[in-house]
Amino acid sequence: MERFLVIGLGRFGTAIAKELVRLGNIVVGVDTDAKLVNRLADSFTEALIADVTDEQALRELNATQYDAVVVAIGSSLETSILCILHLKTLGVKNIWVKAASKAHHTILSKLGVTRVIHPEVEMGVRIAQALNYPMINQFMRLGNGIYLVEVEVKPQWHNKTLREIFSQLSGADSVQAVTVKRKTEIKTVLPKDFVLLEEDRLVLAGSQSALKSLAKRWF
Amino acid sequence: MERFLVIGLGRFGTAIAKELVRLGNIVVGVDTDAKLVNRLADSFTEALIADVTDEQALRELNATQYDAVVVAIGSSLETSILCILHLKTLGVKNIWVKAASKAHHTILSKLGVTRVIHPEVEMGVRIAQALNYPMINQFMRLGNGIYLVEVEVKPQWHNKTLREIFSQLSGADSVQAVTVKRKTEIKTVLPKDFVLLEEDRLVLAGSQSALKSLAKRWF
Ligand SMILES: Nc1ncnc2c1ncn2[C@@H]1O[C@H](COP(=O)(O)OP(=O)(O)OP(=O)(O)O)[C@@H](O)[C@H]1O
Ligand SMILES: Nc1ncnc2c1ncn2[C@@H]1O[C@H](COP(=O)(O)OP(=O)(O)OP(=O)(O)O)[C@@H](O)[C@H]1O
């Protein structure tokens, strides 16, 4: 069981803290807003009121005992930076921080943190990709321009073989069917005459350009 | 080439608009903040100053000509809701909207939009999962509790066969190796004596509980 300290209980910090609790971890949440802390008291292992720009308050939180410390303070650059400075002085090693701008990101990197997150920007990019490729439900980037994508199985593909489906889509030769999830089973051996059923989930792999040309012909 | 209208050019809206441009689409950005619009004028096909709570201004934007309209206004519930109301009156069908709270989400659903997004919450959940499973780089949910995960290939696995690796990890029998990406190649046929090399990326599939028990023994 791991222990996490989450500083700043806005939408982003609270979502992290709640999900870490759901995954079975010990989570202590900290914020200066007493009303907020009281409201969230039952959602975490512990919820504490503290001003993290005060080094003494951070020392009392015993921040080095945690597997990771998350700092999710967005609207005040000064607060976020001071907090990180104090955590580093106390010897905290694993720090994940929200950044609100490129300038904020640069300062955080110079101070030395484990990971900088821009929630709005990272989600914005994902949403744009979902708008641009409506037939792709989710994807994984595997490096060297190779992607795994999970695609909508169109009704006209039901009870058709992979050979039939791929022959309709020219340019498909550089895309491979990787796996089909059928109910609770994962099928990894996919011969050309494998037949797709209605509730199947199909995962393909290929280069970005091959998948793009496939996507344009998809709909 | 598709056409998108992005209303509200904060961090989230701007990230969507820029990524849609990068993917080769026509993108028109709209905001009431003239300074912001001027700064972003070269990043989009067009950047316009307008107050979207004014139905006449929206009518002049010809919002129905777009494949989708994104409304990325977070801090004013009233502005977001009025904008959606006008878009629906004008007959816009495909509307994706940022929500800032559960109450906001409920109202948007009642008005009838295509998709509601909580960028901070959705990113918060992803970050918590990355903190909880440090060995998993990315994942896909395939339904029925089945996941695809891309995992770190540990140095002690280099030049070892899949048989050797999986025998070290008990409980691994219910997890399947789905694909290995090696440089620009995707290997989908993975016999037990397949040897992993240093820069390989390994993708596994299994139920959440099987992957969880594997993860705990991983490190
Ligand atoms: N000095 C401080 N010590 C502890 N908590 C603080 C301090 N300053 C601000 N906070 C808290 O951090 C939380 C998040 O801060 P803020 O509102 O700046 O972030 P945000 O990025 O706008 O939030 P969201 O995650 O909702 O987008 C708030 O609940 C605030 O009370
Ligand atoms: N009536 C309006 N018409 C057009 N644009 C507007 C209107 N009201 C607000 N905006 C713009 O919407 C943008 C985003 O709004 P807001 O700051 O409320 O969202 P946010 O969710 O806090 O942003 P972020 O994406 O940075 O988290 C701002 O740039 C603002 O100028």
Automatic annotation (TrEMBL), chains A, B:
GO molecular function, one term: monoatomic cation transmembrane transporter activity
Protein's GO biological process: potassium ion transport
Domain of life according to the entry: Bacteria
UniProt xrefs under Pfam families: TrkA_C, TrkA_N
Limits of the RCK N-terminal domain: 1-117
Cleaved signal peptide residues: none
Stated name of the protein: Trk system potassium uptake protein TrkA
Lineage: Bacteria, Pseudomonadati, Pseudomonadota, Gammaproteobacteria, Thiotrichales
